[in-house]
Amino acid sequence: MILPAQAIRAITPPIVRPFRERGLAGGMSFGLSVAGYDVRIAEDIILAPGEFKLASTLERFEMPLDVLGQVADKSTWARRGLAVQNTIIEPGWRGFLTLELTNHQVRRWRHILHPRPDGTLVIERGMPIAQIIFMRLEAPAERGYSGKYQNQEPGPQAARDEGV
Predict the structure, then answer these.
(1) Who has the most CB within 10 Å: 19, 55, 72, 162?
(2) Catalytic site residues?
């Protein structure tokens, strides 16, 4: 079941820190939404058409054992050709999210999607970048996430080989 705002707000300790009810940055919303939480980017990013970069969130997550998170695109950025990828946020995971960003613009779209004629996307630190949907598990997980990305530090984290 997808959690509405009041259920997300009621979880203690909070899933997201710092927790914001709602805010605006660059004409886009961040913080608690009707059924999710809109996160902000922690770095300035310049992304040329076809380019891929890692970024991270300003927000830190602490997932309860009975809640799973899923990262989704923000509509405004998606309409400009930006895709934000990430895996599921596992129950028990803690840390700052690393996001995988791809600018999918191609030459024929550039004049429609973004004011920059070359199709480059400029994303400033603090801008809303993705939305997180939280889902309640039928029962708490037997154990929480304990993999190599547990307690992820601020800043984008590159892929790690198993056992590292």
Answers:
(1) 55
(2) 100
Domains and CATH numbers, the chain: 5-136 (2.70.40.10)
For residue 14, whether the previous peptide bond is cis, meaning omega lies within 30 degrees of 0, is: no
pTM for the whole structure: 0.89
- Kindly report, residue by residue over 52-92, the tens digit of the pLDDT: 999 999 999 999 999 999 999 999 999 999 999 988 999 99
pLDDT score recorded for residue 108:
52
112 by DSSP, 3-state: which? helix
Kind and range of the H or E run holding 79: helix 75-79
Nearest to 39 by CA among 13, 69, 2: 69
Angle at 77 between CA 24 and CA 29, to 5 degrees: 15
Q: Which of 139, 152, 124 is nearest to 41 (CA)?
A: 124
Task: Say how far apart CA 51 and CA 53 lie, in whole Å.
Answer: 7
